[in-house]
Amino acid sequence: MSSIILHKVLGRAEYGQTYTAMRLFTDSRLADSPDELWALEHPSVFTQGQAGKAEHILAPGDIPVVKTDRGGQVTYHGPGQLVVYLLVDLKRRKVGVRQVVSLIEGAIVDLLADQFGLLAEADPNAPGVYVQGRKIAALGLRVRRGCTFHGLSLNVNCDLEPFSRINPCGYQGMAVTSIQRECPHASLDFWSIGKQLQSELSSALLAVPQG
């Protein structure tokens, strides 16, 4: 049934294995397969999207670079960064990609405001979520057979140094931040934040009119 959205918490998972699992899920799902939201974190890795250019990877050092089929340029994933992958049947929910992007951004903005009192916003010219111009969350989706995979990354309490080794999302000198940096005295329960974000995303998706 289209109203069902399953929430899964995968813990720390290798990027390559998770990427393979997303593709397998998307290629084998049936018309009545429930949508799923996967919350996890990755060991340190740079991922280069379909539009990614090698010149945006400045000095990767010992962090591996993996090419992937999501939209967007290059970004960093690592411990302390919350990743949520959205495995959603767009055709069944009668929703377009641009609308899904807006729903994701809105869910992150609401979470940051409600849980941490952070005033964040989306930028129509550069997908993602920003706090006073500093990027705190990145987005990258792929649509296959009318269904999305890949998703979002939210910097919770990760090491931000690796972002200086790339041009994040293709923007030279882009400032990057985290919840920990913006709210140094906040108590951060990583997986609780993940579950809350899954709930925000589900509520946003379920609120889409099915006319």
What can you see in these coordinates?
This protein has a single domain (5-206), classed as Bira Bifunctional Protein, Domain 2 (BirA Bifunctional Protein, domain 2, 2-Layer Sandwich). Strand 8 and strand 9 form a beta hairpin. It has a seven-stranded mixed beta sheet, sandwiched between helices. A three-stranded mixed beta sheet has the order 4-3-5, with no helix packed on it. The model has no long low-confidence stretch (mean pLDDT 93). The protein has 211 residues and is an alpha+beta fold. Helices cover 28% and strands 28% of the residues.
Describe this protein with a few key phrases.
single chain; alpha+beta; BirA Bifunctional Protein, domain 2; three-stranded mixed β-sheet; 5 helices; 28% strand
Mass-distribution shape: globular
What is the H level of CATH, i.e. the homologous superfamily? Bira Bifunctional Protein, Domain 2
What share of residues is helical?
25-40%
CATH 2nd-level architecture: 2-Layer Sandwich
Annotated CATH topology: BirA Bifunctional Protein, domain 2
Give the biggest sheet.
7 strands, mixed
Query: What is the class in the CATH system?
Result: Alpha Beta
Straight-line distance between termini: 16 Å
The helix/strand series, from N terminus to C terminus, equals EHEEEEEHHEEEEHH
Number of helical elements: 5
Write out the strand line-up for the largest beta sheet, numbering strands in chain order.
1-2-6-10-9-8-7
Radius of gyration: 16 Å
Strand content: 25-35%
How many beta strands in the DSSP annotation?
10
